[in-house]
Design brief:
single chain; about 80 residues; mainly beta; four-stranded antiparallel beta sheet; 6 strands; about 40% strand; binds zinc ion
Amino acid sequence: MSDSEIELHPVVSPFREVITYHRKETCNNCGSLNEIQRTDSMDNIIHECDTKCTCCGFRDHWVHGFFESMIDEYDACEKYQENV
Ligand SMILES: [Zn+2]
């Protein structure tokens, strides 16, 4: 009887990229709760939607993880990260 010489190493890629996305449920102007108004979804996954803040009334458009208002340098929404 011998101890196993095989060690199992989990395969972790050192090249895994992490992207920061915008949470569509939060306002990019004040960070409060957004109301999601019109959605374009496929397979129950929302790819695109119009949002309106329940606090300040800020309207935005969210596409594939990002608010269009980021172009105008709004950056108050909550973020989440996902590995690619
Ligand atoms: Zn707001």
